[in-house]
Structures are given as C-alpha cells and as structure tokens.
Amino acid sequence: MARLLILEDDIDLTDQWEEVLTAAGHELTITRNASEASARLTEQVYDLVIADIYVRQGGVLVPDGGVLLISRLRQMVNLNRPAWWQTVPILAVSGGSRIAGGFDPLRTARDLQATDWMRKPFTPKDLVFRVGTMLENAEAAAD
After folding, report:
1. Which long-range contacts (CB under 8 A, 24 or more apart) does 101-109 make?
2. Whole-angstrom Cα distance, residue 51 to residue 44?
3. What are phi and psi of 44, to 5 degrees?
4. pLDDT (tens digit, 9 = 90+) per residue, 44-64?
5. Is residue 124 within 8 Å of residue 16, measured between CB atoms?
6. Burial level of 132, CB count in 10 A (0-12/13-18/19+)?
7. What is the 3-state secondary structure (H, E, C) of the chain?
8. What does residue 124 show for φ and ψ, rounded to 5 degrees?
9. Which of 82, 106, 130, 133 could disulfide-link 117, Cβ–Cβ 3.0 to 4.6 Å?
10. What is the pTM of this model?
C-alpha cells in the first residue's frame, strides 16, 4: 500500500481517482490547494504526490496550485523541511495547454523537477498504470 497525496480542485475527478486508486490498494489524502497540501506534507510521509498545475477557486484560476506545491517540494531553500520532500515522486497533471505569455503547465512542471506528467483527460486505467510505474521506479531507485 502506498500513501498518495493528491492536489486537485475538480471534485468529480478526485471521486473517480479515489475509486480506482483505493481499489489498487493505495491510501489517499485529497487536497484542494497548495497550502492545504503543504500542511498535509508536514504531518505524514507520502510515497507519491499528484499535483494539478491549474487550480480554480470559485471559478477563478489561482496561483495556489501545483506549480506552488512542486516549488515547495523541490526548489525552496528550507532547512526545516523533511529530506524526503526532495525525492518524493511527483506526477504533475493538467488539462490546459499553453496560455497567454507562453506558459505551458507541463513544461513548467518538468522544469520544476516533477518526476512525470500527464495531460488531462486520461483514463483511470492510465492513471493507475502511471502511478504504479512511478512507485516501482522509486522503489528500485531506493534499493
């Protein structure tokens, strides 16, 4: 059983993901913004993080999404953060493509050192496969 932290604002998607990922034997913590996700990361060790790059609150795109969370995990200089934050696998997901100014969410996630990325929509089966592969690769790297 792996512990997964999910940052996703779409309740319908998280309901679907929860069904398939718990059926695959994973324990989930679902959050709606980077601040909430960061708080959960200080309470428990996770085996994998799934972060939606675009997060909306009240229908408005806000900066408190996956970019902020991935930055907190990988980029911020913070001597008090747990060491596992630097190496936890991160799956960045986004339904968006490039927006004004040339911002490409998945390229940004890659540049911030997300482990892998998927563009929505994808099937639940694809998500379970990708999560399983990432967990296997992380376990092999730790050996």
Report:
1. 105/53, 105/54, 105/66, 105/67, 106/53, 108/53, 108/67, 109/51, 109/53, 109/66, 109/67, 109/70
2. 17
3. -155, 155
4. 999 999 999 888 776 666 666
5. yes
6. middle
7. CCEEEEECCCHHHHHHHHHHHHHCCCEEEEECCHHHHHHHHCCCCCCEEEEECCEEECCEEECCCHHHHHHHHHCCCCCCCCHHHHCCCEEEEECCCCEHHHECHHHHHHHCCCCEEEECCCCHHHHHHHHHHHHHHHHHHHC
8. -55, -35
9. 106
10. 0.89
Per the structure block, which two tokens stand in for 93?
A: 């997901």
As given in the structure block, the two tokens for residue 88 are 């936890």
Q: What angle do CA 45, 136, 5 make, to 5 degrees?
A: 30
Residue 104, token pair as written in the block? 């490409």
Phi then psi dihedrals of residue 128, to 5 deg: -60, -45
10-38 pLDDT per residue, tens: 999 999 999 999 999 999 999 998 889 98
